[in-house]
Design goal:
Strand order of the largest sheet of chain A: 2-1-3-4-5
Order of helices and strands of chain A: HHHEHEHEHHHHHHHEHHEH
Number of strands of chain B: 0
Oligomer: heterodimer
Shape of chain A: globular
Largest sheet of chain B: none
Helix content of chain B: over 70%
Number of domains of chain A: 1
Number of strands of chain A: 5
CATH class of chain A: Alpha Beta
Largest sheet of chain A: 5 strands, parallel
Number of domains of chain B: 2
Number of helices of chain B: 20
Radius of gyration of chain B: 23 Å
Largest interface: A-B, 30 and 26 residues
CATH superfamily of chain A: SGNH hydrolase
Order of helices and strands of chain B: HHHHHHHHHHHHHHHHHHHH
CATH topology of chain A: Rossmann fold
């Protein structure tokens, strides 16, 4: 290398070192000025991890909207996490729930729990809908991905820069519709004599065309739409390639590393309605998928609480879309099963 | 690959480092490979289209030079080359537009029409590299440039990654010559290149993208906003498109300069122009000079009678409009610029500026002219931004009717400060360039500027990444 070039490289190295110092100073400035505002705005879930420390939690309960949703007619609005806490009075339970969350976000929340927090148990909800493309490509997903960027390890300013550089754009309605249409075809099924469809798309299409519920009643616009939603959300063969299963795998590894006892809480679905409106085949698929979760994680030391059939149809208070929003009776049933599993461990 | 992406932050230092580490004779291979990789990051298969135009114009250049004494053959070769390159552009950019309009026309008149709208996606930056290819063939035809025999170097001239996607549209006399030169590591090139990249990222990520959110809201549903909000949105768009395109061009300049290549400045403080004519000398300079040299002057330029000049101007600006996109709004936007320029001619003959002798008076006139030009350009940008004439009508109807509505756009301080910074920088640098201006400042001021830019990019950039506006062209 020429002497001249060496001198230039030395000069550049010195300047880069100065920039590095500048960055350190700016990171401190950012942390004490704009960071908190950015966290509130772009990563409310980051604050959840901190809650585990401030509330001195023994048990952290990670969930989506199923935890806190309540029916208008409920006599009590207590969330599932609080009900678990009431059933285990000697334990402090922290509610780390946030709407629309899924396993990838739970992983980040758990990973960000401060080492000094006294957490011993992590209860993580397994929402069977979260395995389907309707949720994976949900229009709420871009916002969640932004949260994930802000939860990366590293200096605060670096994470904020990553957020600015990440190409996370919300899909517009047409783009998302197209994407879901394609992805439904990838939700493959094994055809049987009573269920001849090769994927969720075919099944959904055929069901919509027939315009008849399984129980023989003619479908109205609303019931047909809800029945088709059940198909789109649950008609899939769960395996290790599913991105959410991969996230749950990471959660298992993380909890082993952090020494947390891990509980997977398979949430209740409206199986009564599924059997009645779509037929027993979809119910069987749903149970097979829940069984897959149990078979995969119990041997790894995870306590799996199967609440799939724990709530009756009358406790699901929303009738336009499949949700895991239960009335007080439903929430109590879930909490009871989780608390029992924790007592029995 | 986007300039404001994590991938590019990895790509850029690797390519620059490899460029200086490799011996000169291997650099073109590395740069060509890197440029292909950069382009294929978007939609890989579209590189084949680029290859078609490269092969056509490479062969045409050699043939034109071979037949330089046979006028007819030489001209035929030029025409064939122009037609084939333009037909690629036509198929991918204008065929759908033409067929959609034909269908509308046929339905209106009740004709039978077999035409169908085709599902063709416009390859990114097609208009830019098509024009760059054309300028090569025309320059060879005119004898201003020797035909490039080395296919690799010619391909690199069309595909040079910093300016591949949205220009500047380079002439072969500038870029092709530089590609052959052996570049050595120069401190000033690295420092200035990094300054330009920093400033370009600020313009894109802090100015343009932060304004984009407000603009999108206004144009999506203008009737939900007051007249004041709509005016604010229109002004914001003027600065959004400036920040966006100037930002991209500045980063391109910086990336090229890191390796010692000097490419054309595309902007010279256009919003400080006192007339539409001046605006086009300062806005998207590589495109306006392209049209000047290859369309306006061959049509006769200004050395003709006034009606003919007006006709030439209108033609050039209409073509410039439709170059931007296959939509009637772009065509009308271009034509309106042409009409404004024609209307300015009699006004210029009044020589108001020369009649005022004191400096203050001249400054006031200059300022009024700047404001007037900015107002006209902003109004015309609304045609450019609107997706259709229906949307444009909605915008202006809301602007007219919503005068009594309260403001609901909730503009934060950030976009206002960002615009103020852009105006301040424009005033400070005027005819100079940011890197040059910056290098002449005291070290404390210089490092203060770096700190402010880095902090703004890292902490204040928009979290909604808006695609570069000129990518669609």
């Amino acid at each position: 290398m020429k002497k001249e070039s060496k001198q230039i490289i030395k000069r550049l190295a010195l300047k880069f070192f100065c920039v590095l110092l500048l960055l350190v100073a700016m990171d401190v400035a950012y942390y004490f000025t704009l960071y908190q505002k950015d966290l509130d705005q772009h990563c409310p879930i980051k604050l959840l991890s901190q809650k585990a420390l401030t509330e001195q939690a023994d048990i952290v309960y990670l969930a989506e909207s199923s935890n806190g949703s309540h029916a208008p007619y409920d006599t009590s609005t207590l969330p599932i996490s609080t009900l678990i806490g009431e059933m285990l009075p000697e334990q402090q339970v922290s509610n780390l729930a946030q709407n629309a969350c899924h396993a990838a976000i739970y992983y980040d929340v758990l990973n960000n729990i401060p080492r000094s927090a006294p957490v011993k148990v992590a209860v993580v909800t397994v929402n069977m809908r979260s395995f389907g493309c309707e949720w994976i490509y949900s229009d709420l997903e871009p916002a969640l991905q932004k949260w994930q960027v802000m939860m990366h390890p590293g200096p605060a300013l670096y994470r904020r820069l990553l957020l600015g550089l990440s190409d996370i754009r919300p899909w517009n309605a047409a783009e998302r519709e197209q994407l879901i249409l394609e992805k439904l075809k990838e939700q493959t099924l094994t055809p049987t004599a009573t269920q001849p469809y090769r994927n969720a798309s075919e099944w959904d299409h055929a069901f919509a065309q027939a315009g008849m519920l399984y129980n023989g009643q003619p479908a109205t616009g609303d019931t047909l739409a809800l029945a088709c939603h059940h198909i789109k959300h649950f008609a899939l063969t769960l395996d290790e390639t599913n991105p959410r299963i991969q996230d749950f795998d990471r959660i298992v590894q993380l909890c082993k590393k952090r020494g947390f006892t891990l509980v997977f809480n398979i949430l209740a679905e409206n199986t009564d309605q599924i059997k009645d409106w779509v037929g027993p085949e979809l119910d069987q698929i749903l149970h097979r998928n829940a069984e897959f979760v149990i078979q995969r994680y119990e041997p790894q030391g995870v306590i799996v609480v199967n609440n799939l059939d724990a709530v009756r149809s009358s406790s699901f208070f929303e009738h336009e879309f499949p949700t895991e929003h239960y009335d007080f009776e439903g929430r109590k049933a879930i909490a009871r099963n989780v608390a029992k599993a924790l007592k029995d461990r | 690959m986007l300039f404001n992406s994590i991938e590019f932050f990895i790509f850029l230092p690797i390519v620059t480092l490899l460029f200086y580490l490799l011996p000169h004779r291997f650099r073109w291979i590395m740069l060509l490979g890197a440029s292909c990789f950069f382009y294929m990051w978007f939609i890989p298969k579209y590189i084949l289209i680029l290859l078609v135009t490269i092969v056509i114009d490479y062969a045409a250049g050699i043939l034109i030079e071979r037949w330089k004494d046979e006028k007819t053959r030489k001209k035929t070769c030029l025409v064939v080359s122009i037609l084939s390159t333009c037909s690629v552009l036509f198929i991918f950019k204008y065929l759908n537009f033409c067929s959609a309009n034909y269908i509308l026309l046929a339905e209106h008149f009740g004709w039978a029409h077999p035409a169908k709208a085709l599902n063709i996606i416009l390859p990114i930056g097609l208009s830019f590299h098509t024009f760059q290819s054309l300028s090569y063939v025309i320059e060879v035809y005119r004898g201003n440039q020797r035909a490039e025999r080395h296919f690799g170097y010619y391909s690199l001239y069309v595909m040079f990654y910093p300016q591949l996607v949205t220009g500047p549209i380079e002439r072969p006399q500038n870029l092709l010559r530089q590609l052959h030169e052996e570049k050595t590591l120069q401190y000033d090139n690295i420092a200035n290149g990094l300054r330009l990249i920093l400033f370009g990222l600020f313009l894109k990520m802090v100015v343009a993208d932060n304004l984009g959110g407000y603009v999108d809201k206004i144009y999506a549903d203008p009737h939900a906003f007051s007249s004041w909000d709509i005016l604010t949105g229109m002004v914001f768009y003027s600065f959004q498109i400036y920040g966006d395109f100037f930002g991209y061009s500045t980063i391109a300049l910086g990336c090229a300069l890191l390796m010692g290549f000097t490419i054309t400045d595309n902007f010279k403080t256009p919003y400080l122009s006192g007339s539409i004519q001046e605006f086009w000398r300062r806005w998207h300079i590589s495109l306006s000079t392209w049209f000047r040299d290859y369309l306006y002057i061959p049509l006769g330029g200004s050395r003709v009678k006034v009606p003919r000049w007006a006709f030439n101007t209108l033609i050039v600006f209409t073509v410039c409009g439709i170059w931007h996109g296959a939509n009637w709004t772009f065509l009308v936007w271009g034509a309106m610029h042409g009409l404004c320029l024609i209307a300015e001619r009699p006004l210029r003959s009044i020589h108001l500026f020369d009649r005022v002798e004191n400096r203050a008076g001249r400054a006031v006139i200059r300022l009024l002219n700047i404001v007037k030009t900015f107002a006209v350009v902003t109004v015309l940008w609304s045609i450019f931004r609107a997706p259709s004439f229906g949307a444009l009508r909605n915008l202006y109807s809301a602007l007219y009717h919503n005068i009594h509505l309260p403001c609901s756009l909730n503009v934060s301080a950030l976009p206002i400060v960002a615009i103020a910074v852009v105006i301040l920088v424009d005033i400070l640098i005027r005819q100079s360039r940011f890197d040059d201006w910056c290098s002449r400042r005291h070290a404390v001021i210089r490092w203060g500027i770096y700190a402010a830019l880095i902090f703004a990019i890292a902490a204040l950039s928009s979290v909604e990444q808006v695609p570069f506006i000129y990518f669609q062209f």
